[in-house]
Specification:
Blueprint: H1 2-16, H2 28-33, H3 38-56, E1 71-82, E2 89-93, E3 100-104, E4 123-136, E5 139-152, E6 156-168, E7 179-191, E8 195-210, E9 213-232, E10 247-269, E11 272-280, E12 285-293
Antiparallel strand pairs: 1-4, 1-12, 2-3, 4-5, 5-6, 6-7, 7-8, 8-9, 9-10, 10-11, 11-12
Amino acid sequence: MWRYKGILCMLLLSVIFKPALSSDEGREIEQNLSSMTQENARGYLMPLMESYSSSTLRSTYHSAEINKGFNIYIGMKAMMAFIPDESRSFFATTANGESSKKTATVVGDRGNDTFPNGFNWHVVPVMIPQLQIGNILGTEFSFRYLPSTKFDDKIGDFNVIGGGITHSLSQYLPEIPVQFAIQGFFQKTKLGNIFETTGSAYNFLASSRFAGLTLYGGLGYEITDIDVQYNYYPPEYDPSHSTSQPGVISFTESIDDQFRATLGMSLRFIIFNLNADYSFGDYQIATLGLGISI
């Protein structure tokens, strides 16, 4: 039985983790940032950075139950962060630093005569493959890996690598219809040439199974560091004169107070597993997962 499970696992991994063709087209975001000071770049990018970092740490579980014996789950997790209206604009400082103007963030709509338009996004979607293997002493191990894959022509590619551990608490408790577990998850992502994120999530999970249907939920705390770097061309930049050269602006944003509650359900039919959940926090995030459990 283990032999056949191992063969099936390798076949599924070869399909799910097959690299997608990357694209170097566009990169409009780099052009938009090139004339922005660090302060303006922070305001311009923040909604994308927060929504992207929050959504990529979602859907790390679809049950608190750790199945007995050897088991594997292989699937795709799709996440969608909803952009609140207040994140679609910000007040940017003018070149002389004496006033500020309301303009679009990277996910907003129209800029003004000084600052560029946004991409007019109302949601930020991502999709990540996930592998889970268990169990060892009531512990399940999760892995995520996505090679450089096109996110959007305006931004460029993104890639993901991460993993986590889920440990059953129910194995230490009297037999009850509700399962409990704790989870720690660590992940690194890169989006275009602009920013990288390093994030960790700590979750308390609960679930209850009724035949093939599982209702689950979780309370989590997230810590994320976002490193931003881009080429800056000052207003007086002239490529024909060496006395005025572009520079590199880099800064780090730390988001360490992200509490999140998640509610969802998972449906299993034979070896197929479909789950959907919704997370509540600064950004509302819906996720959908489809995988195979063997």
